[in-house]
């Protein structure tokens, strides 16, 4: 997919770059991102919305992969950006991302984060609960700065990847419940606050979703609520944000729709439903993360040791693992892999890919077919662009890998590999501890 192909030497090539050369130049583990594919996904979303004729914003959910170069791409593609912490906000501002296109999410924004975001002049806060509303209102009045907000509501639709539960989502740490009246009360409170400008509501139904039905169900719920708020409180929403969660293909058998189909289905159900209620069509915002960057990423590893346990399995260990990709350990997520240096050879053995952390759960892939693997081979794990670098850790004091963007035969480092200095840089030895004896 994307610009990935096997070249004449039988090497995996991405963005016109031979991955074995990338490995020589940058070392492993290495995150390789296909810039053209990232841009293509951005354009698919934006293009589908343009076609729909609706007013829209596509806000990239930066939690999936938030580095300064990525913020630049999102800006160039004319999109907005969703951040959930001061660190993501800082990254965006450092990258020169226009503050007015930043949306601030999160269920527990600190006063510091709120102040920082107001001072930066961000476009919108997605307010999660009443405590936050009043905290935000107090800080905004103190600063004499009006802030624009959406309320995050729990629409009572929850996607469990392949199915939807349409009741009983009240028990969530996120958002204000629609059915028990909390969302309604919050709106009543917000419209009275002088430094709060309410735009509308936000709903996010889950992640790695393949079907359009969940989004349609959410639209249904939201419009019903919007109509009630208009009729009873005389307040009309100008923005509806439907969150992210559009699925991608990690392994064979995953069946996401083309990005444009989700947008089309959402646009159709918005147009149909709102006109049914004679409601002025609001601006539609969405927040894709995974589906923008997920399939653009490939992680390259060097194979180290391996061992065969007869009649059980062969373990092949690579020089990374749960520190650069915690998803298999955390979510039992599955990935596909190939040997990047032997891409045209036939797969002949079933192996399992282990990481190098001191933990039995540090397995990247259980059961994958590969050519007979040797020490020094380069293993490429695909679809690692989302929630991999973003969730990487220094467990076992392993240094985080470098991230590079490849495009048209050029490679650029967008995150340097961590150094040993990064590992001990924040450590301090209290003076009362005995000095080193060396
Ligand atoms: N908007 C909101 C409010 C969200 O909570 C999320 C994801 C997104 C947008 C973006 O969702 P996406 O399009 O990326 O599915 N670490 C997990 C995923 C956690 C998603 C949390 N919220 C994983 O690795 O699968």
TrEMBL record:
Its cofactor is pyridoxal 5'-phosphate. Pfam families: Orn_Arg_deC_N. One of its GO terms (molecular function) is diaminopimelate decarboxylase activity. Residues 38-293 form the Orn/DAP/Arg decarboxylase 2 N-terminal domain. The keyword Acyltransferase does not apply. Its EC number is 4.1.1.20. InterPro entries: Ala_racemase/Decarboxylase_C (IPR009006), DAP_deCOOHase_LysA (IPR002986), De-COase2_N (IPR022644), Orn/DAP/Arg_de-COase (IPR000183), PLP-binding_barrel (IPR029066). It is an enzyme of class 4 (lyase). Gene3D superfamilies: Alanine racemase, Lyase, Ornithine Decarboxylase, Chain A, domain 1. Specifically catalyzes the decarboxylation of meso-diaminopimelate (meso-DAP) to L-lysine. HAMAP family: LysA (MF_02120). This is Diaminopimelate decarboxylase. It comes from Paenibacillus agricola. The lineage of its organism: Bacteria, Bacillati, Bacillota, Bacilli, Bacillales. The gene is lysA.
């Amino acid at each position: 997919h994307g610009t990935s192909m096997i070249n004449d030497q039988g090497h995996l090539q991405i963005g016109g770059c031979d991955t074995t050369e990338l490995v020589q130049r940058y070392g492993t583990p290495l995150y390789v991102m296909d810039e053209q594919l990232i841009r293509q996904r951005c354009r698919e979303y934006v293009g589908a919305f343009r076609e729909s004729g609706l007013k829209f914003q596509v806000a990239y959910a930066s939690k999936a992969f938030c580095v300064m170069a990525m913020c630049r791409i999102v800006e160039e593609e004319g999109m907005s950006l969703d951040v959930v912490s001061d660190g993501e906000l800082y990254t965006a501002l450092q990258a020169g991302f226009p503050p007015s296109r930043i949306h601030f999410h999160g269920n527990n924004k600190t006063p510091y984060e709120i102040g920082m975001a107001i001072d930066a002049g961000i476009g919108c806060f997605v307010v999660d609960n009443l405590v936050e509303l009043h905290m935000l209102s107090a800080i905004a009045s103190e600063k004499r700065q009006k802030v624009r907000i959406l309320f995050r509501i729990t629409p009572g639709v929850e996607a469990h990847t392949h199915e939807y539960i349409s009741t009983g989502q009240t028990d969530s740490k996120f958002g204000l419940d629609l059915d028990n009246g909390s969302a309604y009360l919050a709106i009543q409170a917000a419209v009275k606050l002088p430094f709060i400008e309410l735009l509308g509501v936000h709903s996010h139904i889950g992640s790695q979703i393949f079907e359009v039905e969940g989004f349609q169900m959410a639209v249904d719920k939201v419009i019903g609520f919007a109509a009630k708020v208009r009729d009873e409180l005389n307040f009309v929403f100008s923005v509806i944000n439907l969150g992210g969660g559009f699925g991608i293909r990690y392994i064979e058998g995953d069946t996401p729709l083309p990005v444009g189909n989700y947008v089309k289905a959402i646009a159709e159900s918005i147009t149909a439903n709102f006109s049914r209620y004679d409601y002025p069509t609001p601006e539609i915002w969405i927040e894709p993360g995974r589906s923008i960057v997920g399939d653009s990423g490939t992680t390259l590893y060097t194979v180290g040791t391996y061992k065969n346990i007869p009649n059980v399995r062969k373990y092949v260990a690579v020089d990374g693992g749960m520190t650069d990709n915690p998803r298999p350990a955390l979510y039992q997520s599955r990935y596909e892999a190939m040997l990047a240096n032997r891409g045209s050879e036939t797969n002949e053995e079933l192996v399992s890919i282990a990481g190098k952390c001191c933990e039995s759960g540090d397995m990247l892939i259980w059961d994958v077919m590969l050519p007979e693997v040797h020490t020094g081979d380069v293993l490429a794990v695909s679809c690692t662009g989302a929630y991999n670098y973003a969730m990487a850790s220094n467990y076992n004091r392993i240094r985080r890998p470098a991230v590079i963007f490849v495009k048209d035969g050029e490679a650029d480092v967008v995150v340097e590999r961590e150094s040993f200095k990064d590992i001990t840089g924040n450590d301090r030895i209290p003076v009362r501890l005995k000095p080193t004896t060396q």
